[in-house]
Design goal:
Tetracycline Repressor, domain 2, mainly alpha
């Protein structure tokens, strides 16, 4: 096999692996939205993701690693969503709505309150560092403003608000922090 052929084969394998990983995380989110984290299992996630259980174990050492990867991918997804917005206020509204309307978060609040308590506790964990960096990247804000935004969004995990409330509150928050 030539070096060029090996690179093409490797690229295909990497693309397939990435697609499997995305499908697994999407499948996990769907299952969690139905039954919560503790009631979810690898077999149901594999069915939802349309992959073999072995594929999940090829991607992740265990369910805990998969769940941590899911949270990380959600932080990245939300950061990208906010970066695509036309203004800081729109970014706030999009983030607020996405968090408040997330069915998997709603189910976790109902079924796994101890996990939610851990999730909303700001620490030096790499995912919190990523979340803080994402907020800073989106809003270009100082550390205090990033903290206010993070705490406002965290509050919506346990106490979601309507889309109308998201828009109204994001307008006020943007006017307070950025004007």
């Amino acid at each position: 096999m030539s070096a060029e052929s090996a690179l093409v084969t490797y690229a295909r394998q990497r693309d397939t692996s990435n697609k499997s990983r995305v499908a697994i995380l999407a499948g996990a989110k769907l299952v969690i939205a139905k039954v919560g984290n503790y009631q979810s299992n690898i077999a149901d996630i594999a069915v939802s993701a349309q992959v073999a259980k072995a594929t999940i174990y090829n991607q992740f050492a265990d369910k805990a690693e998969m769940m941590e990867s899911l949270v990380e991918s959600e932080v990245i997804r939300l950061t990208e969503l906010a970066l695509a917005a036309g203004s800081r206020q729109e970014s706030l509204a999009l983030l607020s709505t996405a968090i408040s309307q997330d069915l998997s978060l709603r189910k976790l609040v109902e079924t796994d309150p101890s996990d939610i308590a851990k999730l909303v506790t700001i620490t030096n964990h790499p995912i919190w560092v990523l979340a803080h960096q994402g907020i800073a990247k989106v809003f270009g804000a100082d550390s205090a403003a990033c903290g206010v935004i993070l705490r406002w969004l965290i509050g919506q995990i346990a106490s979601p608000i309507t889309q109308e409330e998201s828009v109204a509150q994001s307008k006020r928050l943007a006017a307070t922090l950025f004007n």
